[in-house]
Task: inverse folding
């Protein structure tokens, strides 16, 4: 018998098409509570969550990310970014941008733990999510300081990862194949 958590873990997929309806504040608070309950190294909790629901601001970030991709030699991302409908956050109505204290050990892992809790909480509520690792260029661009300020990122914090959130525009897609050949048993 699978417990609720295992079912949610199995069901969660990266959702890349969202309805434009905003999620409720109650849903958001439940999701944030799950983020804050994530484990962190030495219980340091040196993370920060910027809840972005300003579509203009997200659009400006997308432009910077798109520019950076088009100047790179990553053909996979270039083919995605050259689609006129390309949107790094998949047009999600809410994006949680997670930053962390640059000086804190294991901070990337802490933020990733919180991101996974967000994704699982979203699925448990019937909402869609997608972990977004491609926002980095925003925070090394000429306008980085302005974005950090807008997002309320504390001094000395770096962007780590983002999570797009919203109502799913369709059913969950099938799970991409998982490689089972990655496990060593030592007895
Ligand atoms: C660190 C990280 C960064 C990711 N960045 C992106 C991204 O920028 N855009 C995107 O659409 N998906 C992104 N993903 C989602 C993965 O593509 C997805 O998890 C993977 O293909 C497996 O599919 P599933 O999540 O549906 O199981 C990211 C996932 C992780 C863990």
Result:
């Amino acid at each position: 018998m699978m417990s609720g958590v295992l079912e949610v873990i199995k069901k969660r997929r990266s959702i890349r098409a969202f309805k434009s309806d905003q999620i409720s504040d109650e849903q958001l608070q439940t999701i944030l509570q799950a983020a804050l309950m994530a484990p962190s190294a030495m219980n340091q909790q040196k993370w920060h969550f910027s809840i972005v629901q300003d579509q203009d601001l997200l659009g400006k970030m997308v432009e910077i990310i798109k520019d950076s991709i088009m100047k790179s030699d990553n053909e996979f991302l270039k083919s995605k970014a050259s689609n006129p409908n390309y949107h790094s956050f998949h047009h999600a109505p809410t994006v949680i941008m997670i930053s962390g204290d640059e000086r804190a050990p294991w901070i990337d892992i802490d933020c990733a733990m919180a991101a996974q809790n967000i994704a699982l909480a979203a699925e448990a509520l019937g909402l869609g999510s997608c972990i977004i690792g491609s926002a980095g260029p925003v925070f090394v661009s000429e306008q980085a300081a302005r974005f950090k300020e807008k997002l309320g990122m504390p001094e000395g914090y770096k962007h780590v990862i983002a999570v797009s959130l919203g109502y799913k525009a369709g059913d969950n897609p099938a799970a991409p194949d998982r490689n089972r050949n990655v496990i060593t048993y030592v007895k």
Summary: The pocket of flavin mononucleotide is lined by residues 13-14, 16, 130-134, 175-176 (CB under 6 Å). The beta strands are 47-52, 94-101, 128-132, 157-166. The first helix runs from residue 4 to 11. The two ends are 26 Å apart (CA to CA).
